[in-house]
Design brief:
151 residues; 4 helices; Thiol Ester Dehydrase, Chain A; alpha+beta; globular; six-stranded antiparallel beta sheet
Length: 151
């Protein structure tokens, strides 16, 4: 199952994750099934002080966390919370991020995400909570909740 779903996720990343393509991200998984994303340096993603914008780094971390958690769970998830720490300025450098599962529960997956520059200096890290989508339907049934459309 893991190898098949890994191929599904790699295809989804290439064909449906448009922001990743816009930023030039590449996804792979290592031998421990951790998501690894590399992103080449693009000066168009810099902020006014000639460093890579923190929102770009946050997007990179969210993306690697999502794909790591989706593979660990074996299905899609939704990011519900992220806590990020920026340690260094990232200027004119390729970035690499990795996700590590901290907890795989029945309703949510918790992931640690880290980002390094091309010299191996850690730029940022954080944790993310990713809700398992089937949990949402169960919660809506239990609480008789409706979404924004009244469904």
């Amino acid at each position: 199952m893991t190898e098949n779903y890994k191929q599904v996720l790699l295809s989804r990343f290439r064909n449906k994750t448009h922001i990743a393509r816009t930023f030039g991200m590449e996804l792979s998984f290592d031998e421990k099934d951790r998501g690894i994303i590399t992103m080449p340096y693009n000066p168009d993603l810099d902020h006014g002080e000639r460093g890579i914008h923190g929102g770009i780094v946050a997007t990179l971390l969210d993306t690697v966390g999502w794909f790591t958690c989706a593979l660990a769970h074996g299905g899609p998830v939704i990011t519900t919370e992220m806590s990020l720490y920026f340690l260094q300025k990232a200027a004119s450098t390729e970035l690499k991020a990795r996700g590590d599962i901290l907890n795989l529960g029945r309703k949510q997956v918790i992931c640690k995400m880290q980002c390094w520059d091309e010299k191996g200096i850690r730029i940022s890290y954080g944790t993310g909570t990713f809700l398992i989508i089937s949990s949402i339907d169960k919660l809506k049934e239990k609480k008789n909740l409706k979404d924004f459309n009244g469904n």
